[in-house]
Amino acid sequence: MKTAWCVIAVVVILCLVWLFAFRSRPIPEGYHLTEYTAESVDPSGNKSNPSGGLQRTRPAKKPQSEDEIARKSEEIFQREMEVHKDIQNQKFLDALEKLVEYYTWTFEHDYESSKGVRGSFALTEWRNLVNVYPPAADKLRELAAQLEDALRTIPISKILFDQKSFREDMTQEEREAYVAWAMLREVCNFNDVLGTKERTLELLTDLSKDEPELALSCWRGAEDTLYDEKAYDLLQVFIPDLNAEYEREMNRQRYVLSRLAQIPMPAGAPPISEERQTERRRTTTRRALQEHIGRLLDFGVATGQTEVVSELAKRTAEEFPDTADLFEKYYQ
Q: Residues 165-221: pLDDT tens digits?
């Protein structure tokens, strides 16, 4: 009997030693530890990594040259293009891994080329996945929280970011401002998908108090949320001069609208008559100015700058007569 108990004790000790060694060893390169907080079951009845665990990702070899990075960026982009089909086929975990891989890789290595996709098509796939797969919301919330914490606590110069996004003539201060803007933009987009826009406003409020220079350098990453949520008290911190902001926004709209006429039609598309082209420009101009100049004037009215607003509305109507009816309500 005593011998049997000794054998059992030895077995237990060996199991504990093995378990400790496995749990404490570093995660091997090429793997990541998923941390889903809620158990998930696919419609097929198969559990999809319900409690987290060691998951194989992509090959462990890290690309070194620009060519290798470009090739991997293309591979990851092609995998991201599979996400829509994965969701349709209820391969939710595959879709989640591809989205996380795309967002994390391109932020560090290919942001400038990917920012259009990550802010539109890929963000739509996040929204679609979150609607049918709860762990996707958990992961997106985790990614947003990591970016929020980094903005609050980590010097921007320490953030790993795609160096190709910087112009050669940019100062270090301008580069850090761009990285901070990109981070806040991601937070804003993620919170928009999650329905937690208030977190974006809380973050900007905290930064405006604790890191005012950082907040001023990056707030435009959440500009749409500030206007959509009518956070006018906070906007006043970032727009002290309504006239200067109007000039900036009008210059931006003039540039965008001038580019509209230069966009070529797709190959094989039927030619558009001059009349249709004129109507297209008119419709686009009205929509752009109503959205961007209109919300700025609404901010001016809400903050008691009615005389300035009236003058700016008249100037807009004079420059773009087709929009006069949109801005008459601001006249005094």
A: 999 999 999 999 999 999 999 999 999 999 999 999 999 999 999 999 999 999 999
Residue 16 lies in a domain: no
Please provide the DSSP assignment of 64-87 as one string: -SHHHHHHHHHHHHHHHTTHHHHH
> In whole angstroms, what is the distance from residue 142 CA to residue 200 CA?
14
| 194, 200 Cβ separation under 8 angstroms | no
How far is 187 from 181, CA to CA, in rounded Å? 10
Q: What is the DSSP letter of 47?
A: B
pLDDT at site 128:
97
Q: Are residues 256 and 201 in the same domain?
A: no
Contact 173, 186 (CB under 8 A): no
> Which of these, 288, 283, 330, 276, lies nearest to 308 by C-alpha position?
330
Average pLDDT, rounded, for the chain: 82
How many alpha carbons fall within 13 Å on the CB side of residue 97? 18
CB 103 within 8 A of CB 125: no
Residue 164 shares a structural domain with residue 288 = no
Read off the pTM: 0.76
Handedness of CA 116, 122, 127, 128 (dihedral sign): positive
